[in-house]
Input
Amino acid sequence: MKRILLTLLLLQVPAFAHSIWIEPGPADALVVRFGDLRVVHEESPGRLDTLLQPAACVLDENFAATPASARLESAWLRLLGASVGRPALFQTQLAVYRAENRPAVLYTYYARWHAGGPLPRTAALTLDILPDETPGRFRVFFRGEPVAGAKIYRHGDQHNEEALITDAEGFVTVPVQPGLNLVTAHHNEALRGHAGGVAHDRIGHLAALSWLQPE
Output
């Protein structure tokens, strides 16, 4: 299967900050992968074990949510009760990252699997990417509001980058190809709080939308 990898970046993502996305697994199951979109897939034991508070749900044709469990396996998190033919959502985070003389950041990840069929009309994740009726057209939302002027990078088979920008209503059109497609977005929010008893100054929101594009 030929894979096209598309990355939307609202702000520069630190080099170490991997992405999380949903893709088909064995026997039409859905699995969550963690790593570099083009090269590295983290495993367990290892950095895959650092994901905290994973939460998942599967959606019906009306986008009503049913909670699903995420089971840690060697190469991924398997979403129990989820399948390629049903949309799904996933959320997790890392421990607060602290570097000398830099703000402490809580990285929170969101992933949406689009199974085809009905399209979602409203955002369901803090940072969300929704597909549009037009193939290759997407809309980015943050806290339920469209994000205008988001910078987008398209990564093709040769890792060529093509910069695109969302319009005033948060829409953008990106070329797609048959097979597994993936788009991700990042937004850095200045918001103080605590996670796991550790203070943070910002939240790094990272979202992904993935789907299988028919031939």
In short: The chain has one domain: 4-213. Residues 19 and 39 are 11 Å apart (CA to CA).
